[in-house]
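tokens incoming
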């Protein structure tokens, strides 16, 4: 079955929402009761990201009857390492909305439109990058990276981040039109106009989808969830830590890979018309 206008579009964050590193799987059960896992990403010859086999089957089933759209802060190169089960998504949103991929190819017109919007409303990437490097301490900073010339992130030792450092950086960034988000070992600094929801709206326009289901775990997923007709978030991550809620967003208690499977199970129920 193929998607037809008027159908359901699923917009899902990837990392720590649908797919998980070994450290983020949160397999708290005895080893002999752990679920079978499917590796969906390899980096430098090593397995990196997983989901349960049941989650993989659910995702493949959903991708066959909906417009499934991965929506990620990953760069295009990082996204292309991920091989999800089911048919290849027709659309994918990368770089937090900075790029829309159509059948695997970058939509240049969309990207140029995004760049024009950023130039006039927020501080430059150079200014923010300079502040990030000056504010960080080499004792806990592992790396500084720029993603797609759109935003920057630090790779840090999360346990050693000084108390209050993130709040102070967030305040500085807020005044300059940027958002700071802590996800796992990464501290992201992203321009406020660079949003997943803006790119999602463009994909919805092109597909003619009548209903949007969404899922995400971080501060950068807030606008994505608010733009959906129905959403879910796992019991871990920035949104869970902040107790973030919205009337149409269900907060799961489950964490790790079990949350990813639970989100897909609930999405499937909504597509089938039963709802959970």
């Amino acid at each position: 079955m193929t998607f037809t206008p008027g159908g359901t579009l699923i917009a899902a964050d990837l990392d720590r929402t649908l797919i998980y590193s070994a450290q983020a799987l949160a397999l708290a059960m005895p080893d002999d009761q752990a679920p079978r896992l499917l590796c969906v990403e390899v980096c430098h010859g090593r397995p990196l990201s997983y989901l349960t086999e049941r989650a993989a089957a659910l995702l493949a089933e959903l991708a066959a009857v909906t417009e499934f759209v991965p929506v990620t802060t990953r760069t295009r190169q990082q996204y292309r390492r991920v091989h999800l089960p089911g048919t290849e998504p027709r659309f994918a949103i990368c770089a937090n909305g900075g790029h829309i991929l159509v059948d695997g190819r970058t939509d240049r017109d969309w990207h140029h439109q995004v760049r024009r919007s950023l130039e006039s409303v927020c501080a430059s990437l150079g200014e923010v990058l300079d502040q990030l490097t000056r504010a960080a301490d080499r004792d806990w900073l592992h790396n500084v990276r720029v993603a797609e010339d759109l935003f920057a992130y630090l790779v840090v030792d999360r346990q050693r981040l000084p108390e209050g450092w993130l709040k102070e950086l967030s305040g500085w960034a807020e005044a300059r039109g940027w958002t700071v988000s802590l996800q796992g070992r990464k501290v992201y600094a992203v321009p406020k106009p660079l949003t997943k929801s803006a790119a999602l709206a463009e994909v919805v326009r092109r597909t003619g989808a009548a209903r949007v289901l969404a899922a995400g775990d971080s501060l950068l997923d807030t606008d994505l969830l608010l733009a959906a007709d129905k959403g879910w978030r796992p019991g871990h991550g920035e949104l869970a830590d902040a107790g973030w809620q919205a009337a149409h967003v269900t907060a799961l208690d489950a964490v790790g890979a079990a949350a990813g499977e639970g989100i897909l199970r609930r999405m499937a129920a909504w597509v089938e018309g039963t709802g959970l």
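note: DSSP finds nine helices and 14 strands in the chain.
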